[in-house]
Amino acid sequence: MVFEEESDVTDVSTNNNLALLGLILVAIAPSVSVITGFAFKAGLLAIFVFIFTKIWIFGLPAFWYLRIEKGEKSLSLPKNGGWKVSVIMGVGMLIVIFIAYFLLGDKLLKADDLTEILDTVGLTVAWKFALAILFWVFINSVLEEYVFRWFITSKIEQLVGGVWVPVFLSAGIFTIHHTIALAYFIDPLGNLLASLGVFIGGAIFSWLYMTYRSIWIAWIAHAIADIAIFVIGWKMVIGF
To answer: What is the pLDDT of residue 213?
Structure first.
């Protein structure tokens, strides 16, 4: 019996070590990409690192879960409802974003500055900007839920347990690379406010995932919030 208990403790320790290692390897990737691209202005290297880290971010969690941890495949389909709650959360964030833009506007980001940033990648052309919006809302935000809510939040939950610690820690990890990137485009006050918004949004998305155990429930709120951001971006760059 003693040996069985010791074996159980060893298994838990091994699983936790694997969870921590997987968490670290995935969590650092977005910041590596941002720092390489913006801090060092690394040109072709930045492009290579961006592509590599995207593959890393989205490929490693699945590989880690299926091959290292021997988990089972799942589409994360919602089984416990949550659609209405997610829509309400998303609409609430949408309203707050519009109010923040109305009250602060240029204090966060000037239209000329955003246009200059997007012009370097061709997104000042309406149809290209529209395609980028569709990609960000229907593909990128799903992938972010897969990485930050399913993988990172669940790994933190495995390590520390509870609900709120995983929610806030995962939101912090979600915020870090956004803060680093924003530092190169907006002033410190604007970055602080925007980062606070990202953190609150990340916490809401993580709470939705922890409550309903589906990335799709979290994605609904995320997509609605993104729509508000892109409506503002369209107004600033393309105009209505």
So the answer is: 93
